[in-house]
Amino acid sequence: MYRLKKKDLIFTFLFVGVSGINFFMIRPLWNIYLIVLLIYIIIISLKIKYKFLVYYTAFISIIFIGQIIKFKYLPVITYGGEYTKIFLAFFIVWVLGKNLSIYYVKVIYFFSIVSLIFYFSIILFPNFENYFVTEICPFFEIPNLEEQPPHIIIYKFINPSEVNFVHSRNSGPFWEAGAFAGFLVLAIVFNCIQKNSLFKNKEGIVFILALLTTMSTAGYIAFFVFAISWIYYREKSIMKLFFLPLALIVAFLIYNRLEFLDTKVESQIANIDKEDYSSQKRSRFVSALVDLDDIVKNPILGKGKHEVTRFEGYYKDEILTHRNNSFTGYAQKFGIIAWFVYFYFALLSFKKMIKYYNKPAYLAYIAFFVLCIISFSQDFLYKPFFYIFLFLHLIYFNSYGTTNKYYNSNVQQKADTFNSSGTDLKSI
Asked: How far apart are CA 29 and CA 423, in angstroms?
């Protein structure tokens, strides 16, 4: 019987860490963490079959070479970081196999529990946060590096001078509440697929409660889309006729009752200057419009990852260079061909996962749509963890014991042993 290993949990924790936890993202330490993690995981992966990795690396290298020729600029560190994230995601997927999603759920569950303890403690006892910010957080600061928000690695504090239930948002250990919401929604998707339940397990309940405390518009929308699709799949045929209209009515009422939802969305749309949005503050919608302008001008190669080429002429302007929409930003950076390749393999990965767990095929499209929603509001697609969607399709096969020409069968057998042993995932 294959058991979850602490080493693999630590791998997953660090992988999520370099994808969103402030302590691990402080430069230049972020680069060091990535390289060390990559070297170690390569060492334990000497029998890997590289074929698909070689194909994708060759493809993205052609894009990079084209950008270098077009813009006459070679950002070595930037491209090196991109290759590092690609390799790291591939090796993580290879080493952990199908159990990667299981470890991910466990890690986010841990973060959720910790965040809820701190979140409600701060609401009930405001001095609790002040004590941590002034007395405890300084021990976790790394001197002589970029400005760091108060944190204790596994939780980041927000607005230490003004905390109340209406405005305080739970960001967990991530850079902001919207980022935490994105990681939570993915955990909910993986957890439902694994355990065949949205509400009837402790992880699902904790994830939903944590998501509510993020006050994230995109997080709520993504969760609602997945939840109604999941409940629709689970309900009997007669109930399905009544469920969808009822769900839409409930969604409309919630949207209008929760002030921060409708106000935020409507204000961002209303504030777009249709004549000249290029100089406006970058909301997710303005970011999309500006990205689309750049995509039309640079459809094949994009504008590159480095700020010098990506924000040519204004790369030192912190307001104009802030773009938090990675759904369109990915095409703006790498071109529409690379954008299509990423989302093609992301959809394929969800299809393979859904089929492996014997769920209805349409749920793969819902899970894929959830990824699109959360990437529209955050720069998720540039984070190492989200590169796994390029490679997950390599490890989910139609049945236990099936081989794959790109993937080492030893990891397949290890994962299948775990799944076929009859272990109840609810007990993990």
From this structure: 39
